[in-house]
Design brief:
Layout (H helix, E strand, L loop, with lengths): L7 E5 L2 H4 L12 H6 L21 H11 L3 E5 L2 H4 L11 H16 L3 E7 L5 H7 L7 H16 L5 E6 L1 H9 L23 H28 L2 E7 L2 E4 L5 H24 L4 H7 L8 H7 L5 E5 L3 E6 L13 E4 L21 H15 L4 E5 L19 H19 L5 E7 L18 E4 L5 E4 L1 H11 L5
Parallel strand pairs: 1-2, 1-11, 2-3, 3-4, 4-5, 5-7, 6-8, 7-10, 10-11
Antiparallel strand pairs: 8-9, 12-13
Helix pairs in contact: 7-9, 8-9, 9-12, 13-14, 14-15
Length: 475
């Protein structure tokens, strides 16, 4: 059981979750800066204005990565640092570009391979105000294409690019449940605007178009000289039927993955939306024009995989409400026979289930022709971790065991099942701003003391990561 000797492993973060310095060096506001100001949207009433202060501590973060043995580092750029207003005719902020150019140079000098995500949810706020942001099928893809071109040109030394992080979250949590910025939902108690039955499907479509445009630019204008690769990162859980004897549950378990992952991956790899989605959503799911599908089909050099957990799935009654986004089904932590997916964590949606990781790697590989896969996020929170003090909070044995078991499952998927996994980035390098959960939920292998100047201290899991990978990578 082993991973190839050139396997890349490391850690991941995202700009709004770690950088802070939201008004420094000309950065413009994002939809998350705006969303965090609305009372009741963030669990502890906080925001990302300071976060881990990583914008001011790049040297410290790189030193940490080196100490942990990290071979690669996935981070995202703040679009609003580079083009503060976001648009293709808006001024470019050289200070923002300079910051990231130097960061990439410093990572490479430290022997760490950068993986850059162009957009990890923090859309420039002006684009939302100007034309509805992600809802605009014409303007948004063109503005994203322009931003991508500016960045590709500025950072030729980066060879690994991700267009979007988890478009499912931007679409569903941003435009159906209203849980994430910009908070649109049909629930008028939560938001004055939104249509949960239509907007998320429009947003998903527009993100695919913007992805396709950026990939075309990279392949035609930069890849021949820079020799890099580009893909998108998609999130999804593995599923098991609640009653494996009931063919309707078996079908629903498959459909859940189609509604979360294949929504984006099918157009990219197979050139169309899944039949199950078209059947349920009808004309609420946009149709691709021939020009659009030409952009999207075949637009991944690799598959970026974010994965955390698994669910048992029960079929619905065949009459899903218009705002349903799961695919006429319900999920549960327990099967019909009483088996449990895994132990509870601080995150209501996450229970460790390492065999589900192997299962999903195989599901994706079979459906999409065994593409190169980079695991761009994987990790866990721990129930009650934020209530602990030092030194107890540093002894995250539960997280170490999660990583050990998930990496073991991945190694088996590669060596025994033939999946083509090239790299793995643990979420996260450090505790950070966990979106709507604020700072109450911690995912880091490094403890960040927010009360004492964002001081970082490695947890047990951080110190064990190198050992976990040394055990499975060919010498």
């Amino acid at each position: 059981m082993s991973l190839p000797s050139d396997f890349l492993w490391g850690f991941a973060t995202a700009a709004y979750q770690v950088e802070g310095a939201t008004e420094k060096d000309g950065r413009g506001p994002t939809i998350w800066d705006t969303f965090c100001k609305i009372p009741g949207k963030i669990a502890d009433g906080t925001d990302g204005s300071v976060a881990c202060d990583s914008y001011n501590r790049t040297a410290e973060d790189i030193a940490l990565l080196k100490r942990l043995g990290s071979k690669c580092y996935r981070f995202s750029l703040s679009w609003a640092r580079i083009i503060p207003l976001g648009g293709r005719n808006d001024p470019i902020n050289q200070a923002g570009i300079d910051h990231y150019v130097k960061f990439v140079d410093d990572l490479l000098e430290a022997g760490i391979v950068p993986f850059i995500t162009l957009l990890h949810w923090d859309v420039p706020d002006e684009l939302d105000k100007r034309y509805g942001g992600l809802l605009n099928r014409q303007e948004f893809p063109l503005d994203f294409e322009h931003y991508a071109r500016v960045v590709f040109k500025a950072i030729p030394k980066c060879k690994n690019w991700i267009t979007f992080n988890e478009p499912w979250c931007s679409s569903i949590l941003g435009y159906s449940t209203g849980f994430f910025a910009p908070g649109h939902t049909s629930d008028r108690a939560k938001s004055p605007v939104g249509d949960s039955s239509r907007e998320p499907w429009i947003v998903g479509h527009n993100l695919l178009l913007a992805h396709g445009r950026a990939v075309k630019v990279y392949r035609e204008e930069f890849k021949p000289a820079d020799k890099g690769q580009i893909g998108i990162t998609l999130n999804g859980d593995f599923t098991y039927p609640w009653d494996p004897e009931d063919p309707r549950d078996v079908e629903a378990a498959n459909r859940k993955i189609e509604f979360s992952i294949s929504w984006f991956a099918d157009p990219i790899y197979l050139g169309k939306y899944p039949d199950s989605m078209r059947k349920q959503l009808g004309d609420r799911l946009p149709e691709f024009t021939p020009e659009e599908i030409a952009l999207v089909h075949g637009s991944n050099d690799f598959y970026g995989m974010n994965h955390y957990t698994a669910d048992y799935v029960k079929h619905g009654d065949g009459n899903p409400p218009p705002e349903d986004f799961l695919g006429d089904l319900t999920t549960t932590a327990f099967s019909k026979s009483g088996e449990c997916i895994g132990p509870e964590t601080q995150s209501f949606w996450l229970r460790p289930n390492p065999q589900g990781f192997r299962g999903l790697l195989n599901w994706l590989s079979k459906r999409y022709g065994y593409p190169p896969i980079y695991v761009t996020e994987n990790g866990t929170s721990i129930k009650g971790e934020n209530d602990l003090q030092e030194p107890e909070i540093l002894e995250d044995v539960f997280r170490y065991e999660y990583f050990r078991d998930y990496v073991d499952a991945m190694a088996k998927a590669v060596s025994e099942d033939g999946c083509n996994v090239r790299g793995y980035m643990a979420w996260s390098l450090m505790d950070n701003f966990e979106w709507a959960e604020g700072y109450e939920t911690r995912f880091g292998v490094t403890y960040v003391n927010y009360a004492d100047g964002q001081q970082r201290k490695e947890k047990y899991s951080a110190r064990k990561m190198k050992e976990i990978f040394n055990a499975v990578i060919e010498k």
